[in-house]
Amino acid sequence: MTLTTLSEHEIIATLVALALLLGSAFLLGSLMERLKAPRVVGEILGGLVFGGTLLYHFFPGLMGSVFLAYPEEGKVLNVFYQLGLIFLMFLSGYNTRLELDRSNGKVIFCVFFGATVLPMLGAIPFIGMFRDAFIGEAGSAVSFALVFTIGVAITSIPVISKIFFDMGIMNTRFSNTVLTVSTFQDLLLWILLNAATCIAVRGELRLADMIGVVVITLGLFAAVKLLSDRTKPRERRIRPITFFSVSFVALLLVCAGLTAVGINIMYAAFLVGYVVRAAAGVDARIKAAMDSLGDFAFSFFIPIYFALVGIQLNLLHNFSLARFLAFFAVAFGLEGIGTLLMLQLTDLRREAKINFAVTMNARGGPGIVLATVAYSYRIISVEFFTVLILTTMLSSLIAGYWLRIQQKRDDTVFTRLRKGEYTKGATD
C-alpha cells in the first residue's frame, strides 16, 4: 500500500500557515489576558486578522499563497481544526463534575431554570425574525430552531472558571453555584445539539429517530455517570505513556463508532473524557500527565482551532451589524432576565442576583463549539456563524469586566450572597 503525500512546497506552506495562526493566536491571546479579558477572544482575533476582514481583503495574493497554497490545504488545516475541537471537548469531559450541593439546591434550580429553560422558551418567538438570514444550506427548520435557542442559553465553563481563578473567588458559593449550573446546562444543550445535527444529516424530522438519538445520548451519559459513581477512587499504578495510548485509542475509536450511530464527534469526545477520569482513579502521576496534556493542547491544537474559527469570519461581507446587535440584545436580555426572574424566589441579595444574571451570559468556548458544529453541518449560514462567534466574544468580555468591577466595589459580594449574611466590608 502506497500513501499519497504532500509535496515539499505544500508541506512548507502548511507549516507556515500553522505557525502564523499559532503565533498570532498566542500574541493576541496574551494581550487579552493582560487586559483581563478571556484568552479565547484574542485567539479568535489572531485568526481573524488573516481572513477576509483584514489581511486577505487587502492582500489576497499574499494570504492566498499561504492559506490557499494548494487545493487541499483547507482539508489539511481542517484536520488540526477537528483535533483541536476533539481535545477541547475531551478535556472538558475530563474536568466535568456533576455534584449537587443540597443545601444550595433551590438557588441552583432557580439559576438553571432561569438561565436555560426560560431563555430557550423566550427565544422561540424570535426565530422567524432571523430565520431567512440565519438558516443554513441544509434548510432544516427544526435543526435551526434548536441551534437558535441553544445559542441564546449557553454558558461557558472554561471562560468562567478562568475568570474565577484570576479573581481569587474559585470555590466560593457563587462560583460553585455557577459551575454546577453550567455543567448541567451544557449537558442538556450538547444533547439538543446532537439531536439537531442528526436531523440535519437525515434531512427530515422523524420523531422516532429523534427520540432514539436522545435516548442513546442520555443513556450513554447515564452509563458513564454510573461508572464514575461506582468506581472507588484509588491509586492505579498506570504508566502515563500507557494511560495516554489507551485513552487516545479509545477517544478516536469511540468518536468514529458513535458517529456511525448518530452521536456527534463533539459529544463523543466529551463522554470519553468523563469516562477516562472515572477509570484513571486518583493516581498523582496520571493527574500530572493530564495537566501536561492540557497544557500542550491549550498551547497548540486548541489555539489553532480558535484561530481557524477566526479566519473564517468576514465582517465586510455576509454580515449585518443590525442583525448582530438585535440577536445579541435578544440573547443577553433573555438569559439575564430569565435568571433574575427565577432568583426573585430566593433570599439572595440584589447584587448577587444581578451577578448571576450577567455571569450566566458568558458563552465562551461552548458558544464557539456550537457555532462551528452547526456551521459544519450547514444548519446555520455563514452570517449566523459570525454572529454567534461575536456574541460569544462580547458576552464573555462583559461578564469578565462586570465581575471585576463588582469585586472592587465590595470584596464580600461573592461570599455573602444572602440578605441576612451581608455586612459591607466583613470577611468570612
What report would you give on this structure?
With 428 residues, the chain is mainly alpha-helical. The chain has 2 domains: 8-78, no CATH class; 82-419, Na+/H+ antiporter like fold. It is built from 19 helices and no strands. The longest helix is centred in the middle third of the chain and has 30 residues, at 173-202. It starts with 7 loop residues before the first helix and ends in a 19-residue tail after the last helix.
List keywords for this structure.
428 residues, Na+/H+ antiporter like fold, 19 helices, 2 domains, 73% helix, mainly alpha
Q: How are the secondary structure elements laid out?
A:
Layout lengths: L7 H27 L4 H10 L6 H4 L1 H8 L5 H22 L10 H19 L3 H8 L6 H13 L3 H11 L5 H30 L4 H24 L9 H21 L4 H16 L3 H14 L3 H11 L9 H23 L6 H10 L4 H13 L5 H28 L19
Helix pairs in contact: 1-2, 1-15, 2-15, 5-13, 5-15, 6-8, 6-10, 6-16, 8-10, 8-18, 9-10, 9-19, 10-11, 10-18, 11-13, 12-13, 16-17, 16-19, 18-19
Briefly, what is this?
73% of the residues lie in helices and 0% in strands. The model is unreliable at 424-428 (pLDDT under 50). With 428 residues, it is an all-alpha fold.
Helix count, per DSSP?
Answer: 19
**Helical percent range?**
over 70%
Low-confidence sequence ranges: 424-428
The assigned structural class equals: mainly alpha
**How would you sum up the major sheet?**
none
The count of β-strands is 0
Write down the Rg: 22 Å
Order of helices and strands: HHHHHHHHHHHHHHHHHHH
Mean pLDDT across every amino acid position: 84
Specify the CATH architecture of the largest domain.
Up-down Bundle
Question: How many structurally independent domains?
Answer: 2
Could you say what the CATH topology of the largest domain is called? Na+/H+ antiporter like fold
Distance, first to last CA: 68 Å
CATH class of the largest domain: Mainly Alpha
Residue share in β-strands: under 5%
Shape: globular
